[in-house]
C-alpha cells in the first residue's frame, strides 16, 4: 500500500515569459535556428501557475524585463532559506542583469539580498534538502560558491559534480520529493553525476528514486513537489508511474516550449522558504 503523503503550502516566485526566446546558446538544448512559439509558451506557463494555485500554493510574479529572454527561469535568481536570500551571479554575461531585476523584487517584498562574489545560479544548482543543501558544480555554479553559501546559511553543503552537459544545472538532474518522518527524500538521474557524487547521493538518500536517461532528457527531474503533488513533465512517463506507485500524485504540466531553452517546470519556479 502506498503511504499517504501530506502536501504543504508553498510560496512560489515566477516571471511571465513575455520576452522569452532563444537568442543565444549557453547549453546544449538551445538552438537559435529552432523558433519558439511564444503564444504557446505563454499558455503553457499560465497553465503551470494555475496548477500551483489550484493546489493551494501562493504564486507571486517578478515583472519581466525586455532583452532578458531567460528571465522566465526564476529558479536561477536566488536560493531562499528561512527568509534569507542568497542572490545570483550568472556565468553567462547575457544573464547577469537578471540578478539586479530579481534583487529589486526581493527588496520591495521586504527581503535583504546577499549578492555572491562567486558564480552561482540560485536554486538551479543549490537545492535545500532537509538538513543539507545539495550543491551542483561543473558547468555553472562554482565550488567557491558552495563555500560561500555554506558560510551564509550555516547549512551543511554537499558538493556534487555534474558531468553531462545536458544536465548543466543540478535541478535538471535531481529534485526533492518531500518528507518522510522529517527526512527529505529525492529523485535523481545517476548518469548526470561523477562516480563519487553518485556514491554520496546513495549514502545520504538510501530511499531515493532514480530515473532513467529518457525521463531525465524529458525534464522529468526538473519537477516541483509539495510533498504530495508532483508537478512534472508529461513526457517523463516512467517516472510518473513510479511516483504514483510510491503514493505521490503526479500533476502533468507541459512546458515543451521552455525545453528549447534547456528549462522546465522547476527552472520556472523559485521557492520562497520562510
Ligand atoms: N537558458 C537557461 C540557461 O541556460 C535555462 C536555465 C534553466 N534553469 C534551471 N534552473 N535549470 O541558463
Plain-language structure description:
This protein has 274 residues and is an alpha/beta fold. The chain is built from seven helices and 15 strands. The protein has a three-stranded mixed β-sheet with strand order 2-1-15. Strands 3-4-5 form a three-stranded mixed β-sheet. It has a three-stranded mixed β-sheet with strand order 6-7-8, sandwiched between helices. The structure holds arginine. Residues 26-27, 30, 70, 73, 75-76, 95, 124, 169, 171-172, 261-263, 267 line the site of arginine (ARG).
Strand composition percent: 15-25%
Strand order within the widest sheet? Answer: 2-1-15
Bound molecules: arginine
Distance between the termini: 33 Å
Question: Number of DSSP helices?
Answer: 7
Number of strands: 15
Which stretches of 5+ consecutive residues score pLDDT under 50?
Answer: none
Global geometry:
globular
Structural class label:
alpha/beta
Outline the biggest β-sheet: 3 strands, mixed
As a percent range, the share of helical residues equals: 10-25%
Q: What string gives the helices and strands in order?
A: EHEEEHEEEHEEEHEHEEHEHE
Cα radius of gyration in angstroms: 17 Å
Mean pLDDT equals 96
List keywords for this structure.
7 helices; globular; single chain; 274 residues; alpha/beta; 3-stranded mixed beta sheet
Amino acid at each position: 500500500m502506498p503511504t499517504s503523503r501530506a502536501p504543504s503550502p508553498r510560496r512560489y516566485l515566477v516571471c511571465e515569459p513575455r520576452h522569452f526566446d532563444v537568442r543565444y546558446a549557453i547549453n546544449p538544448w538551445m538552438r537559435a535556428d529552432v523558433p519558439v512559439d511564444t503564444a504557446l509558451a505563454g499558455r503553457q506557463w499560465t497553465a503551470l501557475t494555475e496548477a500551483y494555485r489550484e493546489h493551494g500554493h501562493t504564486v507571486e510574479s517578478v515583472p519581466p524585463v525586455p532583452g532578458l529572454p531567460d528571465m522566465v527561469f526564476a529558479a536561477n535568481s536566488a536560493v531562499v532559506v528561512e527568509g534569507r536570500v542568497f542572490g545570483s551571479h550568472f556565468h553567462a554575461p547575457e544573464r547577469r542583469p537578471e540578478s539586479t531585476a530579481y534583487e529589486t523584487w526581493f527588496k520591495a517584498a521586504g527581503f535583504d539580498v546577499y549578492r555572491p562574489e562567486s558564480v552561482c545560479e540560485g536554486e538551479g544548482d543549490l537545492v535545500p534538502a532537509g538538513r543539507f543543501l545539495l550543491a551542483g558544480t561543473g558547468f555553472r555554479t562554482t565550488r567557491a560558491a558552495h563555500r560561500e553559501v555554506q558560510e551564509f546559511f550555516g547549512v551543511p553543503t554537499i558538493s556534487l559534480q555534474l558531468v553531462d552537459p545536458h544536465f548543466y544545472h543540478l535541478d535538471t538532474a535531481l529534485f526533492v520529493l518531500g518528507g518522510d518522518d522529517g527526512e527529505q527524500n529525492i529523485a535523481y538521474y545517476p548518469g548526470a553525476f561523477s562516480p563519487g557524487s553518485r556514491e554520496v547521493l546513495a549514502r545520504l538518500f538510501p530511499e531515493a528514486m532514480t530515473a532513467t536517461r529518457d525521463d531525465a532528457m524529458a525534464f522529468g527531474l526538473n519537477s516541483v513537489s509539495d510533498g504530495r503533488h508532483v508537478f512534472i513533465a508529461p513526457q517523463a512517463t516512467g517516472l510518473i508511474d513510479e511516483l504514483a506507485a510510491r503514493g505521490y500524485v503526479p500533476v502533468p504540466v507541459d512546458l515543451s516550449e521552455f525545453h528549447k531553452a534547456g528549462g522546465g517546470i522547476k527552472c520556472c519556479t523559485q521557492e520562497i522558504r520562510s
